[in-house]
Backbone:
């Protein structure tokens, strides 16, 4: 199974700028990326990122035991975008370091239920979570027609839009 993710460099830059902003109490910011999906072959999905949705400050929960905690309003808003816009949603946050990145223990515990909620309202859309570092990225997605989450095999930032 191949799952490629492509994100326009302008959307990546917008997300990175927002995710790097300080928050009054959360140690890291969260956002959601909108995505469309196409099938390139029987086992080859292409997920195209089309936009970024920052999380408003009032949708964070003050929980010092984790880097950030989002409330039900944030998840419901992302689910509503799946319904209204017909696009999948990927939870996104930044691990502020250079080099390869991946999910923390907290990410592995807390994010799959969010992704399941997004996949339940949009089973024909890609949903998942993406983690940026300053120069790399990691993603796990639920793609249409595949029961289990799949790691992105390739993540590309595409520059110079026409």
Residues:
């Amino acid at each position: 199974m191949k799952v490629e993710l492509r994100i326009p460099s302008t959307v990546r830059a917008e997300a990175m700028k927002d995710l790097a902003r300080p928050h009054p109490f959360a140690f890291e910011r969260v956002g959601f990326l909108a995505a469309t999906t196409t099938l390139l072959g029987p086992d080859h999905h292409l997920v195209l990122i089309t936009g970024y949705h920052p999380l408003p400050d009032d949708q964070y929960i003050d929980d010092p035991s984790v880097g950030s905690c989002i409330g039900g309003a944030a998840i419901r808003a992302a689910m509503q975008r799946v319904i209204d816009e017909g696009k999948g949603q990927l939870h996104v946050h930044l691990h502020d370091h250079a080099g390869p990145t991946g999910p923390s223990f907290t990410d592995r515990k807390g994010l799959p239920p969010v992704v399941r909620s997004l996949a339940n309202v949009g089973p024909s859309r890609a949903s998942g979570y993406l983690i940026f570092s300053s120069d790399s990225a990691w993603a796990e997605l639920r793609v249409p027609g595949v029961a289990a989450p799949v790691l992105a095999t390739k993540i590309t930032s595409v520059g110079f839009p026409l």
User: Anything to note?
Assistant: The helical segments are 9-19, 72-85, 105-121.
